[in-house]
Design goal:
The protein has about 400 residues and is α/β, with parallel strands linked by helices. The chain has one domain: Rossmann fold (3-Layer(aba) Sandwich), CATH 3.40.50.1110. The chain has a 6-stranded mixed β-sheet with strand order 2-1-3-4-5-6. Strand 1, helix 3 and strand 2 form a beta-alpha-beta unit. The chain starts with a helix and ends with a helix.
Length: about 400
């Protein structure tokens, strides 16, 4: 009996060590990166909240990218538009998150290292809140160096142990490692680079197989439903602020205190999404949101922060969506109406660096915001006249 138990114990130990070794060297989530691994981490794209809080501390970036999935897929740290002085760059944006996560991640980085520049993407949807919205904290805070009150997170070691167990000693990790080896070298699998950028290779495969019309239509339907149901409100009851605006203010104040330059970016939504905002009765709030952001930036960090608005009916946003059944035509600047490609991200980064098309994007201030918003309204009227058939289809989605 004792011999049997010893054999069983050592067999189990060998399996455990073998599995942990496999998981470390294959590294399916891109957490350890023991070597230059190439672009074949098919499970990394869904594990940003697990991986990025650790990876950013290894990079000690001079430039930090914050935001949601629009930033993660649009701003490539390896883009040629970045000046040499901006390197190294890390994309700390996380899909499906808002301003609260961006704020906590910024505080996390500051606890170890002070970057020189932040590119902060802000999404209108994150600011549409119930009048009685309550403050909350994301699960990711357990992986961060500091607590929400900016004290040392003494419980972080326990989360690190849990994450180590999940990524090295779990059966899921073994299966994902095997899957990673199986997909090695295939060009159209999901991936997140070592610098935190998601090149959306899985979307590239879908666009090739189904066409861009399907990508746009599916996301247009989802966006219409979301904005129709979203609260038509920007501020907490009885105030002229909200948790989302408070997060932006806190980021600006922290950046000013540490001498960090901030470039707040309003995303370049495709015209389809702009029209969805209008059809779902959100346009007035969309304009008020920009006015409030311009006021906050001018009030809290006017010397080191700039609010850039790329959200208008410019020629990029008016890019034609191919008709149904067309699998050949490529939309060069967008995956669908909400997510822009790195090609358009390049144009934005060029503008942020003082180059690029001078008519694309504007540094928004309280002094010019109303004139700018009026120009966007006028351009929207022209777009609707030129693309009346598309507008009819979008209006049908509202039903």
């Amino acid at each position: 009996m004792a011999t049997y138990l010893r054999i069983w114990f050592f067999s189990l130990l060998i399996l455990l060590i073998g599995g942990m070794t496999l998981n470390y060297w294959v590294d399916p989530y891109g957490l350890y990166r023991p070597y230059s691994d190439g672009d074949w981490k098919p499970h990394a794209a869904t594990q940003g909240e697990l991986v990025k809080p650790y990876q950013v501390l290894k990079h000690l970036p001079r430039t930090l990218i914050l935001g949601n999935s629009r930033s993660e897929v649009g701003f490539d740290p390896e883009d040629a538009a970045w000046p040499e002085s901006a390197q190294p760059i890390y994309n700390l944006a996380l899909p499906g998150t808002g301003t609260r996560v961006a704020r906590r991640l910024f505080e996390h980085v500051l606890a170890a290292h002070s970057p020189q520049t932040i590119v902060l993407g802000v999404d209108f949807m994150d600011f549409l809140v119930s009048p009685d919205v309550s403050k909350w904290e994301p699960e990711i805070i357990h992986r961060l160096l500091v607590t929400p009150d900016r004290q040392i997170n003494n419980d972080r070691w326990f989360q690190m142990m849990l994450d180590g167990t999940v990524t090295l000693a779990s059966l899921d990790a073994v299966m994902h490692s095997i899957d990673t080896v199986r997909l090695h070298g295939k060009p159209e699998v999901a991936h997140v680079t070592a610098a935190g950028f998601n090149p959306m290779r899985d979307y590239s495969r879908i666009a090739h197989n189904e066409g861009y019309f399907n990508l746009f239509r599916q996301r247009d339907i989802e966006n219409m439903r979301v904005y129709q149901k979203r609260p038509k409100n920007l501020f907490s009851r009885g105030t002229h602020t909200s948790p989302a605006f408070e997060d932006v203010t806190a980021i600006l104040d922290l950046a000013r205190a540490h001498g960090i330059q901030v470039k707040v970016v309003i995303y370049p939504y495709h015209a389809h999404l702009l029209e969805i905002l209008r059809i779902s009765n959100c346009w007035g709030l969309f304009e008020d949101w920009k006015r409030e952001l311009a006021h906050i930036v001018a009030t809290h960090n006017p010397d080191q922060a700039t609010l850039w608005d790329f959200g208008g009916y410019h020629h990029f946003a008016r890019e034609t969506v191919p008709p149904a059944g067309d699998k050949q035509t490529v939309v060069h600047n967008y995956w669908e109406a909400g997510h822009f490609k790195k090609e358009l991200g390049h144009q934005i980064l060029a503008r942020l660096s003082g180059e690029g098309e001078p008519t694309f994007g504007i540094a928004l201030t309280p002094a010019n915001v109303n004139v700018h918003l009026l120009a966007i309204r006028q351009n929207g009227m022209k777009y609707r006249l030129e693309q009346s058939a598309e507008i009819i289809q979008l209006e049908k989605l509202a039903q």
